[in-house]
Amino acid sequence: MPGAVRGRGEGRCLITALHHYTCADHGGPGIASSREIWPNRHPYLRTPLVWLTDLAEPDRWALGLTSAYLSCDRTAVRVSVALRSEIVPWHWWAHRERVPRVIRELLEDGAMPAHWWVCESPLSVLSMSDVAVFPRSRA
Q1: For a tag site, which of 57, 99, 115, 137 has the least CB within 10 Å?
Q2: CATH of the domain at 63
Q3: Residue 135 maps to a domain
């Protein structure tokens, strides 16, 4: 899988699973029922995507899940999926799909897109868990 091994030299970290974060009110129940994550259309992008991260603990700012326009906590539930060849780093996908720079800047501003992964296909759920409640805002 492209990018499955992160870093260089002795400090490399092997990624064994990726995570999708969602709210407990809307996304969580549907995923729990179907045991799948389906691609969702983002208003700035043409292609529906499943958004994933290699961060096992959610950071709403790093993930771009600040809920500026939504009232639910989109980091309340962690859904883990197995690695698949269709899952690619966001930067690769954005370059391949020629996402305009202004759109990338809007999505990536203040975030950590190096931790973002995307997939155009539905993904089977390995596990789901509630994320422990802790402060999720920048100090």
Answers
A1: 137
A2: 3.20.170
A3: no
**What's residue 75's pLDDT?**
66
Q: Is residue 12 part of a domain?
A: no
Question: Is 68 contained in some domain?
Answer: yes
What is the C-alpha to C-alpha distance for residues 93 and 32, in angstroms, rounded to an integer? 27
**DSSP letter string, 56-112:** SS--HHHHT---SS-SS-TTSEEEEE---TT-EEHHHHHHHTT--HHHHHHHHTTS-
Q: Is residue 9 part of a domain?
A: no
Residue in this structure with the two tokens 């800047």, named with its chain if needed = 105
β-partners of residue 124 are 36
Q: For the whole model, what pTM was predicted?
A: 0.76
Query: Phi first, then psi: what are they for 30, rounded to 5°?
Result: -65, -40
Instruction: Please tell me the total count of domains within the chain.
Output: 1
pLDDT value of position 94: 96
